[in-house]
Amino acid sequence: MPSFLREFRRRSKASTKTDKTSSGNDGQSHSSSNDSRSQDGTTAEPVPDMPRNKSSSTLNSIFGGKSPPMPAGSPPLPSVPSISGSHTNLAGMNGSKTPPLGSRPGPSNNNSSRYSIAGSVNGSPKPSPYASPLAPRVISASEGSWVHQKVLLIYGQVGDPNQPLDGDITVCSHQDCFPPMTWPVSDSHFKALVYLQPGPNRLRLDFIPRQRRPSQGQMNGQPAHSSHFQINYLPMNSSPPLHLAILVAKDSPRTFDAVPDRVKSEGNGLETAVRKFRMAAYLWQAFTGEQMNRHGFGRRCFRFEEEWQPGTLTGRDLTTGQMRNEAKIHIITLDKTVAEIQDLNLAQQYEPAKQKGDMFAIAMDAVKNHFKPRPGQKEYVSCMYLDTHWDSKVGTVRGHAALGGGDAQVKLAIFGSHSLQSYPAHLEEVVPAFTDCTKTDTNYVANDCNESGSNWEAANIGIGAHMHETGHLFGCPHQESGVMLRDYVRLNRTFTTREPYSTRTKSQGMRLCLQQDEFV
């Protein structure tokens, strides 16, 4: 039969056939039209009569069963191709016109390196085509886990720890939202502080050995030893924030104690104090979140009051003027003069002092006047006195007290600025600050409690003791060990894998600081 007659016959049958059925010997109903046309236009082999499925969802039946009647006013259903190629049921619904064949989309040939945020959250990231045995491995946090702090402390390894390697690891932030940060690798172990933005963060970690062979070059423009790690940051905005404040006397020169070299290289003014205090606070947060997780409480920690401002967590933001959402530092002017703040009778470490608690009362009055808490509204504030001063003649620190507590309205912690010169101001300075063996020059700065004989030890005491008082602010009492005792003298071990010579113990520090060594 000519092809045009076959086409005419098929269309005629599709448009005029009614709901005819044929009954077999078993009494079951069968479809009366099994004639079909394949996608290339040729006549397909008739489909044998098969028993109809009694299920109501027979529209897509591969056996060509009749379609259920359409409700009045309903739009036509989209064409769904059947395995046999038969479209007679759909043709009956749409008149004599045969619906077009649906085409299945082919596999994507897109080789773009871009990735979907949703895909990275709900599924594993696309594996790298090249996996080096020296690719960094994060072992302190699980892939895809959730944290609640902007700066996260991670710990990991490269290669086989039994075959130790030294080098550097570079952490590249999600969507380049933060400059790459480089951290040392010691005996195949590394610790790093990672800047996170709210939501999913897919990080790339690149390991570069110290003695790199030419064959260990780059592949596809990236270092050969690379891995990816995903972490999710969820800010706890429903929790009350911890406010950070610097207290200055009404006639303050707005400077803090520092040796001449430090004054020349980085300054000792209020802006430098703000950067260092902010960085120290993010170290508190990273430390707290990690310690809570290690002890089975999850990554619980406090949050800061943050504001949109020029970024300081990386030194590169100072030159680029990059704006970021970072911890706000309140500058509170006291109603006291510098002389009143530095009165020896108020100095906590001065034995003959009679009013050692007045420094806390002065700060409390200033904080309440600044924040003006309403009844039932509780504020949490950690303060630093900027006008603290080391008196080398008397041998004590003026304008300083380390206290934490509060009342029903304000929970308060106070500390001095006498160790501030040793603090890091940016993430790039964290490891250098905790490994700086420069001897403390007591002509200019204090050796607090005779445990700050070098810069890195002064950073331990200043950052750690202030964190201790902030713990009291949150209601933590003294403990038998840990930072709520005096274990903050080893705070450096939390953030570094090497420890320098200690003037406190008069011994060489640990060659390798692992997690189990941090409070030994």
Automatic annotation (TrEMBL):
GO CC term (a single one): cytoplasm
Signal sequence segment: none
Biased composition (Pro residues): 68-79
Positions with biased composition (Polar residues): 83-97
Biased composition (Low complexity): 21-41, 99-114
Pfam families in alphabetical order: Metallopep
Protein name per the record: Uncharacterized protein
